[in-house]
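Now for one record.
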Amino acid sequence: MSNIMPEGEALRKAVKWISENHSANPDKPLQQLVNEASIRFDIPPNDEEFLIKFFRERKED
């Protein structure tokens, strides 16, 4: 599993929120969770890409 912590409070909150929501709703698509987190925490597009990559790598481990 990747140990890289994202920089920025909004991004850390987004990671936590996505993790919690994915655990509660494992059938919900990752892209949808990232989109919702991006709106909720005002995440820019380049950080959205980070989130998608972060969670895909985490899933592979």
Notes: Helices lie at 9-24, 30-41, 45-60.
